[in-house]
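Hey, resending since the last one bounced:
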Amino acid sequence: MRNYVLGKYVLKAAWLFFVFGLIVLKFLDNSFMSWDVVIGLAFLGWVVAC
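The structure tokens again:
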């Protein structure tokens, strides 16, 4: 059970890091992805993590 909780936190941290990386890439290269895709991924990650 403890490993499950720990895994969930690791997954949440990994997802936040991934989304943060996407946003940084978006700022560096504006043609990388559209903002609605980035925001959609962030929202999806929030729903999955919580």
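Residues 5 and 31 are 37 Å apart (CA to CA).

Sorry for the duplicate.
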